Every structure is written in structure tokens, then in C-alpha cells.
Amino acid sequence: MGCKLFLVRHGETLWNHALRYQGHADISLSDLGIEQARALARRLKNQRFAGFYSSDLRRAYDTARILAEPHGAEVQRMAELREINFGDWEGLTREEIINLYPDISRKWWSRPLETRLPGGETLNEVADRCVRALQIIAARHPDDQVLVAAHGGSIRASVARLMRMDLNQYWRLRQDNAALTIIELFGSDRAQLLLFNDTCHL
To answer: Which residues participate in substrate binding (predicted)?
Structure first.
């Protein structure tokens, strides 16, 4: 048996609703996002978790805090679990990005693994830091269940890396707000995906 990670994308924010790229911008949950997190908390209230972790951005931390409340647990924040750093794109919509950054946006959407966003990261860097954080968490809690609240991009990049997918195709992995993904880690190099993007609680 390995460490079973319950990966949760944060609830909706106003920027999610407006289809704006958030990245490292510290945007709060919307009222709907809070309700989404509460719905998932009800679903998971009878599970046993050895720990609760989240990105240090408030939308992920507040989601994790709501999920941890029925268990009387504290949430440990890890900056390594943050969303992709979108740099100069943060706060913009896809259409605005295409108009302002036509060349680099085409490169990013076709080859994100090594394409550096203006003022931001490559997808390879995101996958490296996020998987490293998950491996640290799993090493702390062997043979236990742990909940980790993070972001759409960081979860998709982590799952793609752990499943040994081509990260240039990571966009094929959908992550809805407050969705649950479960992946089990066996040591540092073996993983099994048990559940992906489940939103039945919503």
C-alpha cells in the first residue's frame, strides 16, 4: 500500500467565472466556491486523513480549511503547490492573451513543457516543483490518506508527470473547480490513478 493523495482543485473564484488567468494572483473564493468546498467537505467527512495540505494561495488554503474543519485538523501550506506562474498573463482572458501575445501564446498552447511564459514559468518547472512537494508529503505519510488542495494547472501537471504522459498534452486533462482526484504513490517513482476530476458532490 502507498500514500493515497486526495487532490482537490480549489472552489470557484470570480476570476474563474470571468475566465481570467489567475496563476500566482491571490484571488479569494467566490460565494459559489465556498459552497462547492462545503459540498465536498460533506462528501469526505467520514474519510480518515493523516494530514491536510494546500498551496499557500488563499483560494486553495480556504478550500482546504473548509475540508479540514469536520476533522478538527490544521492545514499545512506549501508554496510549491501553487498554480502555474502565468507572469504577465495574470488577470487576462484567453482572447486578450491571443491579441497581446500572439507568438508566445501559440508556442505555449502547442509546446508548454519548455515554453517560458513572459515573466512566468515553463510547465516543466511547474511539474518538477509540484511532484517534488507531493513526494515529500507521501514520504511523511506512508500507507495513509492525505488531502491536498491545489490548482487546476498544478494538479494536471502533477498527474501527467506521475502517469508519465507527454506534458505537452496536459491540456487534455480537465480539472473543474472543487473536483476530486485520487492518486496513490508507491515510493518515489510509481503511481496509480484511482479517480480523476470527480464532481458528483456538486
So the answer is: 9-16, 59
pTM of the model: 0.96
Instruction: Check whether 100 is labelled as a binding-site residue.
Output: no
Phi/psi at 46 (5° precision): -95, 0
157-169 pLDDT, tens digit per residue, is: 999 999 999 999 9
Is position 5 annotated in a ligand binding site? no
Could you tell me the residue range of the domain that residue 63 belongs to?
Answer: 3-198
Average pLDDT value over all residues in the chain: 96
Q: What single string gives the DSSP state of each residue in 152-185?
A: HHHHHHHHHHHTT--GGGGGGS---TT-EEEEEE
Kindly list the catalytic residues: 10, 83
Whether 2 has a binding-site annotation, put simply, is: no
The radius of gyration of the chain from alpha carbons, rounded to an integer in Å, stands at 16
Domain CATH number, residue 160 = 3.40.50.1240
When divided into structural domains, the chain yields a total of: 1
